[in-house]
Amino acid sequence: MKLLFLNGPNLNMLGIREPDIYGRRTYADLEAYIREFCAEKGVECGIFQSNHEGALVDAIQAAYGKFDGIVINPAAYTHTSVALLDAVKAVGIPTVEVHLSDVSKREDFRQVSHIRLACCKTIAGHGFEGYRMAAEHLLAL
Ligand code: DQA
After folding, report:
1. Which residue in 54, 61, 116, 117 is deepest, having the highest Cβ count within 10 Å?
2. Could you report the per-residue pLDDT of 106-121, keeping only the tens digit for each?
3. What average pLDDT does the structure give for the chain?
4. Are 72 and 95 in contact, with CB atoms under 8 Å apart?
5. CA 126–ligand 1 middle distance (angstroms)
6. Whether 22 is catalytic
């Protein structure tokens, strides 16, 4: 089982950005957390972060035939990107949408998620734990 973890813009600023919302743990901490639970479960993982929408589209396309599942936190692109939605639809890889914060309790513009239409599950408001929950959902499929 190979899972790809994708993170969108500004998630590399974890630990610095809005700690009241996203916590004080860093992006390096998130990567270590993901690697640890994947190792425990015997899952191979790829992890990629980009601030660029096209780079995330490229990563989704490159996952075709290589990964069995995708866990994606598209960050702000959740609310704007039809290109990411189309990329997930194009590859047909089971994908779970994750958000650190509970977007349902935040601003109106965060209530829209384009990528959700192509995802088998959405997990929000569980911090780092959400990534593990997403992986477990994909493993159970
Ligand atoms: C986020 C929520 C998004 O609305 C926001 O733009 C982010 C992070 C989250 O993990 O809670 O950058 O995806």
Report:
1. 116
2. 999 999 999 999 999 9
3. 98
4. yes
5. 12
6. yes
Dist. CA 72–CA 62, nearest whole Å: 14
- Written as six digits, the tokens of 19 are 């700690």
With tokens 């916590």, the residue in question is 23
Ligand 1 centre distance from Cα of residue 109 (Å): 11
| Neighbour order of strands in the sheet with 95-99 | 44-49, 2-7, 69-73, 95-99, 121-124
pTM exceeding the 0.90 threshold for the entire prediction: yes
**For the segment 8-22, what is each residue's pLDDT rounded down to a tens digit?**
999 999 999 999 999
Share of the chain above pLDDT 70, in %: 100
For residues 53 and 55, what is the distance between their CA atoms, to the nearest angstrom? 5
Q: Are 29 and 71 in contact (CB under 8 A)?
A: no
